[in-house]
Amino acid sequence: MGKQMTEMLKGTLEGIVLAILSGRSAYGYEITAWLRDQGFSDIAEGTIYALLVRIEQRGLVDVEKVPSEKGPPRKVFSLNAQGREYLEEFWRTWSFLTERLEQLREGDK
Amino acid sequence: MNTGSNEPKSRYQKYLGLVIGPLEDKRRYRQYKARTEQLPASYHTAIDALQRYMHYFGPGDSDSLLAMLDDLVDLFEQSAANGTPLREVVGEDPVEFAEAFLRNYPKGSWISRERNRLSNTIDRATGDKP
Predict the structure, then answer these.
(1) pLDDT, tens digit, 9 for 90 and up, residues A76-101
(2) Of B79, B75, B70, nearest to B105 (Cα)?
(3) Can you tell me the ipTM of this complex?
(4) Mean per-residue pLDDT for B92-113?
(5) Is residue B84 in some structural domain?
(6) Domain boundary assignment for chain A
(7) Contact B54, B110 (CB under 8 A)
(8) Which residue of B77, B78, B90 is in closest CB contact with A44?
């Protein structure tokens, strides 16, 4: 994963994680594993964890502690109403950005 | 409401906070340290290094600091249990991870005070705020 990808991901990772959680609830490790499967191979588990702490602090997710066979209990995150609203805003912003960028590319030709 | 009768109590609580607060903080800190000692050696080294870095740039009040350390050791315990390689936990650039993590605990850190001071000074200079 190149430097450019890392930089672009910084601004979108929050939206990506919220979008994953809109489909189903998940714990941190599952989210990281899914992202790695999708080709985001350099994403650090710690980065996802820090992001989850942040969206929990901001009240975008509900958290449930679930006992685990190995190790400490896992925090399972699910998107709540406030999180859904935030995700919609993220998609609107994303659409705006991609439309403008596409216009720039068309103008190039 | 009789505020007069509340005053001695609040002073007593203040006193309790002064005496017990630090003791409770110490207890939480020792608990955190004990948890880090249970981690695999490489994880232990990493969390000590992160803690050192975060002492410089992290929260200034003990409550936020302890909450941050608890969250940090939660991550490392979880990753150790999952068998995640250390590099995959902290990433290619551990400073970047440390900074992303620290941003969640802005309270009382000198760097966030300085950030606020800079923004406020510019606000006053531009006339955006009195």
Answers:
(1) 999 999 999 999 999 999 999 999 99
(2) B70
(3) 0.84
(4) 87
(5) yes
(6) 3-108
(7) no
(8) B90
